[in-house]
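Hi, here's the filled form for the chain we discussed.

Project: internal
Contact: R.S.
Residues: 310
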Amino acid sequence: MSSAPSRTVAGGPASEGGSEASGHLALVAVQLLFGVFPVFGRVAMDPERGFAPFAVAAGRIGFGAVVFGLLAVAVHGRGAWPPRALWGRLLGLSMLGIVANQGLFLLGLARSSAMDAGLLVCLIPVFTYGVAVVIGQERPVAMRLIGVAVALLGTMPLLLARGATLSGDHAVGNALMAVNCLCYAIYLVASKPLVTRHPPLVVGFWVYLAAVPFLPAFLAVDGLSAAASVGEDALWSLGFVLVFPTVVTYLLNLFALTRVRASTTAFYIYLQPLLAALGGAWWLGEELHAALLPAAAGIVLGGLLVLRRR
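And the returned structure, exactly as it came back:
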């Protein structure tokens, strides 16, 4: 999803007592903010009163680079600057985790619904495991492979919804968001060795910094605004998108990962479809269409099979 550079980063054992409880509360807050992100994103990109999708993506990249840069320098000093030997690798990671991830998600969201976006984000842990198996980072386990297949089949009702055609606007939007999830999954797997050797906050700054040169291209695609004049609601929604799903969620995840096991964070992602569906119905008047139920069943069941412990 469209989201901070890393939603799940390698972490140590869970702390005990109240600190662990605070970690779980932080994860709930993360899912709440990510869950309503598609709702505010749709308002920010309203065709009649909002911004163009690539303009929103450019805003997230620029804002994230500045904020994470300031935080990384404040916490790590000179260690915040990336070594020259890593520049090429960081550019590749940034293309996957920031440029393609955010661009595809926002383009897809503009053509689909908040409900569909909240559900498709559950493909991230499924894709992550599949990519890790393909490159040999994890070993294949039969039940988890079945889970990957079930989750992928679960996306079909969304791709075929509203007229049973792959050429419909929602189908194209959902396909773009599914590819976005795959790009983010590849980024997570490829960045794991980097995150284990460098502070996550510094890595977050590096990948955002490597995406900054793409800002002019993003703005050149379709300009700043999708409308003749931008409404106040679109401005407030853009502000929410820049501050909370872009920065605050990442920092809350770092806080949580000092208190709970990293694997625990994956389970919380399944709160997002419910939150996105409720937010889409309440704020945007989106209809709970029939394809959501079988899609949710397939994606959530597949995800649980991938994430289950022995």
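Let me know if anything looks off before we file it.
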